[in-house]
Design goal:
Layout (H helix, E strand, L loop, with lengths): L7 E3 L2 E6 L6 E5 L3 E4 L2 E5 L5 E6 L5 E5 L4 E6 L27 E2 L20 E8 L2 E9 L2 H4 L6 E9 L3 E10 L5 E7 L2 E3 L6 E3 L5 E4 L8 E4 L4 E3 L4 E6 L4 E5 L5 E7 L3 E6 L11 E14 L4 E10 L1
Antiparallel strand pairs: 1-2, 2-3, 4-5, 5-6, 6-7, 7-8, 9-14, 10-11, 11-12, 12-13, 13-25, 14-24, 15-24, 16-19, 16-21, 17-18, 17-20, 20-23, 21-22, 22-25, 23-24
């Protein structure tokens, strides 16, 4: 894939520039614009630009440039398997609550803002393709004054998304562009549409667990003994060295296979009564890398995720 260092210009979409200092892409969308077969840029909620991927088989995905967040994955039946919370805002004042948000360069609370800054910045489109009928788009995020104000390192994040008939795949590549090493943690905080009383996850038996219920500041160490993990109440549990394939029954008639490469951990989350108005409609099954990833200058780390249904 050829990297684009100059402005990325599409018909009626003016991504005027990628500011090398801030890492932000400044975009204006006049109307739906077509870039590659199956890839178009359109105006989304709050007038924010989004990339729409359409498969010839009838599946569709939407990715907002703000946060590089996949907010929708519709299979050919028209069913959306992802969930965006009803209280989500599309005004750049806070991250988009739902879909498939990035947690980088920090998962959870810590030295910088909760879940890091990648979900609070505009990503830019640097490439689009159509591979055997499957639409593909690649987004870019780089360091800038906002990121450096809390995490003073040069980095580049490339995020490739590919849509197939009954699957959506992502590849995240983090590169250290600084002259000094850095470390990070990261996750894809995936919200799946679900009936929480019927949802369950298979594949976690035997994993070491860090259970944040009842005290998130002092997780209880344990081992998962269940073949099928359910969501009977508040759930916030980390699974270390999780297998590369899990199966989510969303309680709505779908079984979603969650495969990954190099996402070593998993997280299950449902807020229960902490979000009383909406907790019944989703569960989070997250691919994560919770041990520090150490990168020397010019080194890269890559992880892949593949979500599919039968």
């Amino acid at each position: 894939m050829a990297m684009v260092s100059m402005s990325f210009s599409l018909p009626n979409l003016n991504i005027r520039r990628v500011d090398r200092c801030s890492g932000r892409a400044f975009a204006s969308v006049n109307k739906e614009t077509s870039t590659t077969i199956g890839v178009k840029v359109a105006e989304g909620e709050g007038n924010l630009p989004k990339v729409v991927l359409t498969s010839p088989h009838g599946s569709e995905a939407e990715i907002y440039l703000f946060g590089g967040c996949i907010t929708s994955w519709k299979v050919p039946s028209g069913k959306d398997l992802l969930f965006v919370r009803p209280d989500a805002v599309f005004n750049k004042k806070k991250p988009i609550s739902g879909g498939l948000p990035h947690c980088f360069p920090q998962f959870g609370p810590g030295a910088i803002q909760q879940h890091g800054f990648a979900r609070n910045l505009d990503w830019s489109v640097i490439d689009s393709d159509n591979a055997d009928g499957n639409p593909v788009v690649t987004l870019l995020l780089k360091d800038g004054p906002y990121s450096r104000s809390m995490w003073d390192f040069g980095f580049q994040a490339l995020y490739k998304v590919m849509l197939d008939a009954k699957s959506i795949s992502t590849e995240l590549k983090i590169t250290n562009t600084d002259n000094k090493p850095f470390s990070f943690t990261t996750a894809l905080h995936t919200y799946f549409r679900a009936s929480v009383t019927g949802a369950s996850v298979k594949g976690l038996k035997g994993c070491k667990t860090l259970n944040k219920d009842p005290d998130p500041t002092n997780p209880l160490e344990g081992k998962e003994e269940r073949d099928v993990v359910t969501f009977p109440g508040f759930v916030d549990c980390i699974y270390l060295d999780a297998p590369s394939e899990l199966h989510l029954d969303n309680g709505l008639g779908d079984v979603i296979t969650v495969k990954n490469t190099n996402w070593s951990d998993a997280v299950l989350w449902n807020p229960h009564l902490q979000m009383e108005a909406r907790y019944k409609d989703f569960v989070c099954v997250e691919n994560a890398k919770l041990g520090n990833v150490q990168l020397e200058p010019q080194q890269s780390w890559t992880a892949k995720q593949h979500l599919s249904i039968l």
